[in-house]
Amino acid sequence: AAMGLDNGLARTPPMGWLHWERFLCATDCGTDPHRCVSEQLFVEMADVMVAEGWRDAGYEFICIDDCWMAPTRDEDGRLQADSKRFPSGIRKLADYVHSRGLKLGIYSDVGNKTCAGFPGSYNHYDLDAQTFASWGVDLLKFDGCNSGTLELLAEGYRRMSLALNRTGRSIVYSCEWPFYLRPMQQPNYTEIKQYCNQWRNFFDVYDSWSSIKSILDWTALHQDSIVEIAGPGGWNDPDMASIFFLLQLVIGNFGLSWDQAVTQMAMWAIMAAPLFMSNDLRHISPKAKWLLQNKEVISINQDPLGKQGYQVTKDKNFKLWERPLSGRAYAVAVLNQQEIGGPQNFTFSLTLLGNGLACNPVCAVQQVLPASRYWGVYSWVSSLSVKVNPTGTTLLKI
Questions:
Q1: Rounded to the nearest 5°, which phi and psi values hold at 170?
Q2: Can you give the pTM of this predicted structure?
Q3: CB atoms within 10 A of CB 141
Q4: How many whole angstroms separate alpha carbon 199 and alpha carbon 5?
Q5: Which residues touch 149 (CB under 8 Å, ≥6 apart)?
Q6: Which H or E element spans position 292?
Q7: What is the rounded distance in angstroms from the CA atom of residue 317 to the CA atom of residue 337?
């Protein structure tokens, strides 16, 4: 059977928009139709993604998360959309999204109920995969609530992967498998990558600095077990929303300062994380739009070599990360985790990078974030001094 890696999908980390972190299960369609999770929301977001350059920047998926379903299956046992939220049905919405040059993502759960209590896919894996394929769905985020035992969890993730492949439709498969395993056992990432295109490792990302920081700390702590497995076809998701979307980009919401938003964007690029925004694209500041559509940062995230970055060293409040890129280049992030005071300098030798080979015998240094600036040519024995704001990050390409 063809498995996740062999399905030809997700050659670079998927990019898109999903509703969860920003809109949750909002039901007030009568009083507040612009906030309600409904077909109107997705149609409007798809239009904005085209009109405002998001699609052209690479954000191609528009994803429905939990709460889209009717509370029961139909008489044939098939999942059905909530008729109030999605009066035209999912197939119609998928056709519209496709007509705009975008792809549609949807959500289900490996257990008998989703996290919000709607019908899950347990005992219906083949039927649900066929339903999603018949609707024209392009991505499935498969959550792990209410799955019973760890054996049933693993079996469900495997079975849905095979069921999706049997449909003959190209559907990116986003799993929560390792996140639900981790409290009890170490995930087997080699197996998970056989079945999934991306997988979530950590808690939902929230609109807060503590959430972003805890994800980065967790990733550095576990990098020996997760960095090597990432690559074309399969990616570590720091979190996409509702665990799924690789680190969901909460930029453009309420909880992050500008420096922290820069840190999230820079570090998601270093981590080769799927880039899924959860924000209201109809009301986003020009600065947030500049950051999220930044071509230099996106090209690092989407680098075809597909290697995930890792922490090289830390010193007091500073963390130094690198990511090998194609063409023997490196992306380098200097993160200042101090939350008080002013900008601080961090000085490091270029011999630290790429096992001493990143700048051998010379290299050009380009600053990407927080602003684009050419630093010049350095020799491999040089040191770089980088000034970084509190909770900020300077992203370089070497």
A1: -75, 105
A2: 0.92
A3: 31
A4: 13
A5: none
A6: helix 286-292
A7: 5
CA distance 105 to 154: 22
Q: Pick the catalytic residue: 47, 95, 126, 204?
A: 204
Residue-by-residue pLDDT tens, the chain, 398 positions: 344 446 778 899 999 999 987 888 877 788 888 889 999 999 999 999 999 999 999 999 999 999 999 999 999 999 999 999 999 999 999 999 999 999 999 999 999 999 999 999 999 999 999 999 999 999 999 999 999 999 999 999 999 999 999 999 999 999 999 999 887 888 999 999 999 999 998 765 556 788 888 889 989 998 998 999 999 999 998 763 322 233 456 666 667 889 999 999 999 999 999 999 988 999 998 999 999 999 999 999 999 999 999 999 999 999 999 999 999 999 999 999 999 889 999 999 999 999 999 999 999 999 999 999 999 999 989 999 999 999 999 999 99
Q: Which one of the listed residues 65, 143, 237, 303 is annotated catalytic?
A: 143
Dist. CA 82–CA 69, nearest whole Å: 5
Token digits of residue 307 = 């290697």
Please state, in angstroms and rounded to a whole number, the distance separating the CA atoms of residues 227 and 304.
16
Which domains are seen in the chain, by residue range? Answer: 15-302 (3.20.20.70), 310-397 (2.60.40.1180)
Respond yes or no: is residue 204 known to be catalytic: yes
Q: Count of CB atoms within 10 A of residue 386's CB?
A: 22
126 flagged as catalytic: no
| Short-list 206, 172, 169, 204, CA closest to 62 | 172
**What does the CA dihedral 296, 137, 271, 52 come to, rounded to 10 degrees?**
30
